[in-house]
């Protein structure tokens, strides 16, 4: 499992559910790129890293260009959020040591109708021309909300009629280049992406504001014995709090999420991506734990296993002023 760079993350309960659900679905390795989060979220990540469950990787500032050329090119940090998605997922895919892999966020679980996700994906991609399975987005909520640190509602999620962006699971040995929501190209050109019969359960923080109808669907977070997994999560959050938080489980404030969304809309109106441009806004509402790693080499090109160098085409995703020339300037 690859997790996109963690930016200003507050919902630590999502991480508890993510680890429990994906392990139940067959996942064995979690690579998490880290940029920033609340102190409580960082404590949860450190807890799972100390257990050997996840591998935390730094995703710090991209740094500055030399002074003599800095004015000629855009500041990559100002668009780092969207850049990070494309860079991190392709870097992580190169590091996946398992046959089956996925790049899916902390608030998303891909599930089949029956059995585990791993068994389903393995069956669909073994001895076939299927290189990736697409899981359609399904927004869900729970009652009670897990942000109260009560996970009892996980067994019966509420589904909403609104559609959203899909995610995919892939055969790691045949991937050449990926976008966030689809495979860009395969090494083996006979491979295809196939729509799965499963679902992407997407626990969006503002799902109740979607103004969508609730509907009934058969999908669940766990393939079996949901009560056992709920007990495990409750055990982690409540009985091990002293080792994680040193106090009762802290609440999650959505104020910072609203601040980020406001900044995002403002940035889009100015023709820019939301990235470091939001730092001053976010620092004003919360104390964040930033990754401070230094000496990280920044490369904006991906050389896939086929050996042909490719640039990630993000011109339709964010700041069009970030040109190929601008990316060339950051390569070293």
TrEMBL record:
The keyword Cell division does not apply. Its EC number is 2.4.1.-. It is found in: Membrane. Keywords: Glycosyltransferase, Membrane, Transferase. It holds the Pfam family Glyco_transf_92. One of its GO terms (molecular function) is glycosyltransferase activity. It comes from the Eukaryota. It is an enzyme of class 2 (transferase). GO terms for cellular component: membrane. Its main location: membrane. It is a single-pass membrane protein. Belongs to the glycosyltransferase 92 family. This is Glycosyltransferase family 92 protein.
